[in-house]
Amino acid sequence: MLDADRLETLIRDNLLVTRLRVIPELVSTQDEARRLAESGASPGTVVFAHRQTGGRGSRGRRWYSPEGSGLYFSILLGQAGDAATPARWTLAASLAVCRACRDYAVPAEIKWPNDILIRGRKVAGILAELRSGPSNPVLALGIGVNVGQREGDFPDELTETGTSLLMEGGVDCGREELAAAILGQLSTIAGLMYHGDWAQVREDWIAMACGIQGAPVRLRDDAGVAAGPCGTTAGIDEGGALIVRLEDGSRTILHSSESLVPMET
Ligand code: BTN
User: Fold this and answer.
1) What is the residue-wise DSSP string for 34-63?
2) Which pLDDT does position 80 carry in this prediction?
3) 21-58 pLDDT per residue, tens
4) Quick one: the chain helix, strand, coil %, rounded to 5?
5) Could you give the number of structural domains in the chain?
6) Whose CA is nearest to atom 16 of ligand 1?
7) Cβ(98)–Cβ(178) below 8 Å
8) Could you list the residue range(s) of the whole structural domain that residue 192 is in?
9) Does the beta carbon of 58 sit less than 6 angstroms from any atom of ligand 1?
10) Please, which of 24, 33, 117, 247 could form a disulfide with 140 given CB 3.0 to 4.6 Å?
C-alpha cells in the first residue's frame, strides 16, 4: 500500500501541490480528477490510487494497474494560457518522469510523445486531458509508472514490451519517494511553463528523447493498416508535434502516435 502519511511528508514543500488525496481503489484517477475539477478543486490537487480497475492509457488502451507495484496518480493543473496546450504538457510531464526515473540510476528515455522507456521497454506513460472546471478548463495530467513488478507479473500482452524500475535495476525504488521526485521535477518544469519558457522545456525534452531525429518510420494508411508511406523522423515542431520527412521529400506533422507504426528503439 502507498503510505499516504509518508507521501504527505515528502511533498510538503512542493509548491505545485495544493492538496493530496490517496484513495484505495478507483476506476481511474483521471475520472476522479475530472470529478474534482468539475466540483471546483483547485489546480495542484493530486489524487493517487493504490489500484485502478479501469486505468486508461492513451488511444483507448487500458493501463495495467495492480495494487502494490505501480504508481497511479493524476494532478490538476491550470493551463497557463493558450500556449500551454495538452500536447506541450504531455512533453513537460514526460520530461519530469524521465528525470525522476534517471535519479534511480536507470537509462530512461522518452519516446514521443508520452512513453518512458528503459532499454526499449515501457516503464511509464502520461495521459493529458482537458477538463472543464466551474470557470476555466483545467488540465488533468495522469501518470502511471511500473515500479516493483517482476518478470512474469505482467499480463501476456505486456511481457515483451513492459518493464519496471525494479526489473531494470533501479536502486531503492520506494513508490512514495519516486512520486515525490516526479512531483518535484514537475513543479520545476511547471514553473518554466507558467513563465512562458516552453523553449527551455522543449530543449530539455529533446535531450532526453529517442527516435525523433532520423529514425525510420512508417505511417498507417487510411484504413489504419501499416501500409502507408515510409519516412524518417525530423524533430518536433514548436507545438510538440512530430515532424516526419517522407520518401517523396514532403513533410508531414503528426499530433499523436496513432498513425505511426511503432518505431524500433
Ligand atoms: C499511456 O502511456 O498510454 C498513458 C498511461 C497513463 C496511465 C495513468 S495511471 C494514472 C492515470 N489514470 C489513468 O487512468 N491513466 C493515467
Assistant:
1) HHHHHTTPPTTEEEEEEEESS-B-GGG-B-
2) 67
3) 999 999 999 999 999 998 989 999 999 999 999 999 99
4) 30, 30, 40
5) 2
6) 142
7) no
8) 4-209
9) yes
10) 33
List the CATH number of the domain containing 133. Answer: 3.30.930.10
Between the CA of 245 and the centroid of ligand 1 the distance, in Å, is: 30
Residues 33 and 120 in one domain: yes
* Cα–Cα distances in angstroms (integers) from residue 250 to residues 29, 76, 126, 245, in the given order: 41, 39, 30, 6
Q: Is the CB of 198 under 6 A from ligand 1?
A: no
- Nearest-atom number in ligand 1 for the CA of 115 is 2
| Ligand 1 centroid to residue 57 C-alpha, Å | 5
pLDDT at position 176 is: 96
Q: Indicate if ligand 1 lies below 6 Å from the C-beta of 257.
A: no
Q: Are residues 81 and 105 in the same domain?
A: yes
Q: How many angstroms is it from 246 CA to the middle of ligand 1?
A: 31
Q: What is the pLDDT of residues 132-163, one digit of tens each?
A: 767 778 899 999 999 999 989 999 999 999 99
Identify whether residues 204 and 218 lie together within a single domain: no
Q: Name the closest-CA residue to atom 11, ligand 1.
A: 142
Distance 249 CA to ligand 1 centre (A): 36
Per-residue pLDDT, 82: 67
The answer to pTM > 0.90 is: yes
Cα(74) to ligand 1 centroid in Å equals: 8
